[in-house]
Amino acid sequence: MVDLLAICAHPDDLEVCAGGIFAKAVQEGLRTALIILTKGEAGGYADAETRVREAEAAAKILGITYLKILDFPDAGLWCHESAVQSLIPYIRECAPRYIFTLLEEDYHPDHRAVSQMTRAACFRAGLKKYSGNNTEWHYKGILYFGADNRSNKRRPDLYIDISSVAEIKKAACEAHRSQNVTAFAMDMAKEYGRAAGVSYAEGLYLEESLPLSSVRALFA
Measuring CA to CA, which residue among 57, 143, 124, 29 is closest to residue 84? Predict the structure, then answer.
């Protein structure tokens, strides 16, 4: 069982969008996991094997202890029954409290597809018939992050201050040497930081209410 599970389309999605959140979660003693649906081979900068190695290195930097990289076609993801079914065993294996995935309004078709797949698979994974051992599991919530705030006109519902782990996020982005994403990722974190009144922040989007058990959680 993990506390946070990210389900992403490409090897660098988490590092760019929410690497700081996951690094901070690990520092706070939370357990984290990552499922990547493609090997990112369609980007034209590196082959699949290179991108897998980069993803493994970045996950190690972030302290992620459970990593699965699947083999769906990059730039060819779409939400269909067999894809949803393939995700369920991994979700049940992790049994996460919270799931993080890409925003459906994002610019990349793969991002939109993985958002749809994640919602469908998480719902099904909570049903006994999909448990494999007749046990129940229910997540607390799904949170979304976006990879490009130029195409997404929504503003985040939550800003997470990642200033204390900004260098870890940067190092994880730099592990994806073939993609040259570091400057873009850190500029976005600075922009969200300005909105949040801190040096660096990452944004999350909600589609349903998120219950809080402590009033302290309201105060940065």
Answer: 124
